[in-house]
Amino acid sequence: MQFKLRRMRLVPVAMGILFLAAAVGGFAQAMTTVTSLDGTISAIKGETITLTTSDNLTKTVSLGPNTLVLRRQAAALGDIKSGDALGVASRRGSDGNLTAISINIFSPELYKVVRKGEFPMSTGDTMTNAQVTNYAKAVDGRTLTMTYAEGTSRIAVPDSTQIHRLVTVKAPDLAVGLHITVRGTLKPDGTVAAQSISFDKA
């Protein structure tokens, strides 16, 4: 399967992509070696991408029929509806309550493959991948209620919280000059078989 890809100017990837990598942590649980790469597409040939990292190293990334390509775009709390699937990175306060740092609104295709539930992140924060059952706005703040198999979490959402929607797009939306984050399997020859590729909307 060949992908015809066009050229495009550089688009910077926002810091919130770090939380996306944590959100999809369960995507490749069965893989032997999982890796994440961040860099700029310097060449595309068929199903193979050459990625140049910030320290000028080149990595070869291969796309497959199941590779998810995701475009991340800014959203607002008001865009979230009951039943939406979210990935919420939050910090637990001394009182035990959770406060959101970053929220990703998942596309249906992405939610099918993410690790669901609530679990600790490597940063010490908490990731909650679940569906929204309620969004309440009151005088004391904004709160999301999220339900998953093991229970329910109430998460406060301050105005400073970064919120993005992840839209599933096609491989031809990738282009030379685009800044991307890749998550996939590291092969013995050093190439990466991409499970997901994400980038920010211009």
Short recap of the structure:
It is elongated, with a radius of gyration of 17 Å.
What does this structure look like?
By secondary structure, this protein is mostly beta strands. The protein has 2 domains: 7-71 and 166-200, Nucleic acid-binding proteins (OB fold (Dihydrolipoamide Acetyltransferase, E2P)), CATH 2.40.50; 75-165, no CATH class. 6% of the residues lie in helices and 54% in strands. It has helices at 17-23, 108-113, and strands at residues 7-11, 34-45, 48-53, 58-62, 68-74, 85-92, 98-105, 117-120, 126-138, 141-148, 151-156, 162-169, 176-186, 192-200. Strands 1, 2, 3, 4, 5, 6, 7, 8, 9, 10, 11, 12, 13 and 14 form a 14-stranded mixed β-sheet that branches. It is elongated. The model is unreliable at 1-17 (pLDDT under 50).
